[in-house]
Design a protein that fits this description.
Blueprint: H1 8-23, E1 28-29, H2 30-37, H3 41-51, E2 66-70, E3 73-78, H4 90-104, H5 112-126, H6 142-154, E4 156-164, E5 169-183, E6 186-193, E7 198-203, E8 207-216, E9 241-246, H7 253-256, E10 261-265, E11 268-274, H8 278-285, E12 292-296, H9 298-324
Antiparallel strand pairs: 1-3, 2-3, 4-5, 4-8, 5-6, 6-7, 9-11, 9-12, 10-11
């Protein structure tokens, strides 16, 4: 049995076709519809559940697609206008043009031809509106991004000077480039790192310097690309587990970072999360103030206590110097 994940683009296309298909076949058997659409009955039922909460902006009861499922039969009772041809207003057309132009400039996109075809169609339909003075630029460090992309396309190994924020250190390493990609709004170089002897993701804005080597890029057979569908950081049981007690002002941590457990004991929550490095956790948590209290592990608590003691000593030093200064100075 295949366990491959259905691409989101395939599902979107199927959902867009599903409403007019079902409108033309009221009361159709779900198994018959699934066979026509080339999916399993389970997948079609999942599509129907998703479709049931889709509709027009406002998303009130009268705006959503509605249907009746009677045993193994399904009938669309409200199509929310999806039976009509799509007509974009000027703002919607311009938003699509800008979004597609952004995608076309994104490194690592494997469907660039399809994006450019869709962009051409929308620009043609939008007419003069598509020529509006809108410039699409990717996030900062464009020059470095273009330089790294050109080096990767040359097929050579690279020597990097790279800043690792988790350990707050800069290192030199030789890498065998594999691909460029964008995840979570950041551009990355994915490469086999000879220093770590593993596949690594290098954020472009953290590459301080690089040089193209004469030797070709030659990732070994064990250089497997990362699965970044869920983001770059994939916490596992091998990483340190940190326990926090957070107040109302620190609850954003549970939304911004992957957490393992949240116990909502008002007014404070008990939060457990995996971190790549205790050094990173120390720097991050000491800046959170009273809204976050570290419960464990003991090593992290000791690090933070030592850092706090050092900071207090620095505050005390100027006072001692002032006390020893001659009068009148």
């Amino acid at each position: 049995m295949s366990t491959a994940r259905t691409p989101s683009g395939d599902r979107l296309g199927r959902l867009l076709n599903l409403v007019p298909y079902l409108l033309a076949r009221p009361g159709i058997l779900i198994s018959e519809a699934a066979a026509d659409l080339g999916v399993t009955g389970k997948q079609l039922r999942e599509d129907l559940e998703l479709l049931w909460v889709c509709g027009l902006p406002g998303y009130g009861p009268g705006d959503l697609i509605d249907m009746a499922i009677d045993g193994d039969h399904v009938t669309i009772s409200h199509d929310a206008g999806m039976s009509k041809p799509l007509r974009l207003n000027p703002d919607e057309a311009l938003a699509l043009v800008v979004a597609l132009r952004m995608l076309a400039e994104t490194p690592g996109i494997g469907t660039r031809d399809a994006i450019e075809r869709a962009l051409a169609k929308i620009e043609n339909a939008a007419g003069d509106l598509a020529d509006a003075p809108v410039t699409v630029r990717m996030p900062a460090n464009q020059k470095r991004l273009a330089e790294v992309r050109a080096a990767v396309e040359s097929g050579h190994a690279l020597r990097l000077t790279y800043y690792t924020s988790a350990r707050d250190e800069t290192t030199d390493r030789v890498v065998d480039p594999m691909r460029m990609l964008m995840v979570g709004g950041f551009n990355y170089l994915e490469a086999w790192c000879r220093r770590a002897e593993a596949t690594r993701l290098f954020r472009i804005d953290r590459i301080d310097a690089f040089a193209e080597l004469d030797e070709p890029s030659a990732p070994p057979v064990e250089a497997v690309p990362h699965d970044v569908t869920g983001g770059v950081f994939r916490p596992g049981p091998e990483l340190p587990l940190v326990t926090l007690r957070v107040g109302r002002g620190g609850r954003w941590i549970t939304e911004y970072y992957p957490v393992e457990q949240v116990v909502k004991d008002a007014p404070e929550w008990l939060v457990t999360m995996r971190v790549t490095d205790l050094g990173w956790a120390q720097r991050f948590l000491t800046g959170q103030g009273r809204d976050v209290t570290v419960i464990g592990p003991p090593e992290l608590l000791e690090r933070i206590r030592a850092q706090a003691a050092t900071a207090l000593d620095q505050y005390a030093a100027p006072q001692a110097l002032a006390a020893d200064a001659p009068a009148g100075r």
